[in-house]
Design brief:
two-stranded antiparallel ribbon, mainly alpha, single chain, MetI-like fold, 303 residues, 12 helices, 2 strands, elongated, 67% helix
């Protein structure tokens, strides 16, 4: 038990100084909150499953994802082909495994680009205010006038379907969301006492913004990141389905759906299975977003 001390003036005990929370302690608290929420725990399992599948794709695959066998086309699930084969006789399970690499890589690059651009823009806009805030917000409003999905289609059609193009097409359309969320968070934080105390000690303004204020705005950013992962995977699948993503025979989930359109009645599994994988992956990231919101909700610590 922590010992208390007595002041020489009032004779009242002073409460023991709280120990600083370590990164391990914060991680344990976060995991405890997620595991108490069954839906968030389910989302965590799904996200970990997809992530590990993407990392271990060469070891999990049972066939060559590009190997065609027209003699075994549209075969149902069996011991040889766990999820059946597509219209070219390629193993669906293997293509789904390698497709997770494409989906996660595109989502990671797009979200990273959106965070790197959107967070500083929103932070500077909210902290500096004045003409800087007006200029940034009017640019964001102008950018929002263009439909995000149409802008992504235009960029991919103009520059070609490469990873860099998809990063730009999906990531740039997410920048306004980060800028607005971070700006609102900074506006609510910059007038608080800890910011005034930092100014009085002579700390540089940019250091106050990026090392103190933004550290207290991390909660909405993390929630938005998890939701944007789901959005990026959906956009990449949509572009591939429309023929604007990676060209055949790339094992993209959206391309697998596109190739299965003509065989829905003959072999419905070639479309149902990739569709379920896309839906479950997006659901997992959305459930994780809800769990993160619960973790960083200050009301949960109120007694």
């Amino acid at each position: 038990m922590a010992e208390t001390t007595v002041t020489p003036f009032s004779g009242e005990p002073i409460a023991p100084r709280a120990r600083p929370r370590t990164a391990i302690g914060i991680f344990r608290e976060a995991m405890a909150v997620i595991l108490r929420n069954r839906l968030a725990a389910l989302g965590l399992v799904i996200v970990l499953w997809v992530s590990l599948t993407a990392l271990l794709a060469p070891y999990l695959a049972t066939h060559d994802p590009f190997q065609m066998n027209l003699a075994n086309r549209l075969v149902g699930p069996s011991a040889t082909h766990w999820l059946g084969t597509d219209s070219y006789g390629r193993d669906i399970f293997t293509r789904l495994v390698y497709g997770s690499r494409i989906a996660m890589r595109v989502a990671l690059g797009a979200v990273f680009l959106a965070v790197v651009i959107g967070v500083p823009l929103g932070a500077l806009s909210g902290y500096l205010g004045g003409w800087v805030d007006t200029l940034v917000m009017r640019c964001i409003d102008t950018f929002l006038a263009f439909p995000g999905r149409l802008l992504a289609i235009t960029l991919v059609a103009a520059l070609g379907p490469t990873f860099l193009t998809l990063y730009l097409a999906i990531g740039i359309t997410s920048v306004p969301g980060y800028a607005r969320v971070v700006r609102a968070s900074v506006l609510s934080q910059k007038e608080k006492e800890y910011v005034e105390a930092a100014r009085m000690t002579g700390e540089p303004e940019l250091r106050i913004l990026f090392f103190q204020i933004l550290s207290n705005c991390i909660a909405p950013i993390l929630v938005l990141v998890s939701l944007d992962f789901a959005h990026a995977i959906l956009v990449e699948s949509s572009l591939s389905f429309l023929g604007l993503g990676f060209p055949p025979p790339a094992p993209s989930w959206g391309l697998m759906l596109n190739e299965a359109r003509g065989y829905m009645e003959l072999a419905p599994h070639v479309a149902i299975i990739p569709g379920l994988v896309i839906s479950l992956t997006i659901l997992g990231f959305n459930l994780i977003g809800d769990g993160l919101r619960d973790i960083f909700d200050p009301r949960q610590y109120e007694s």
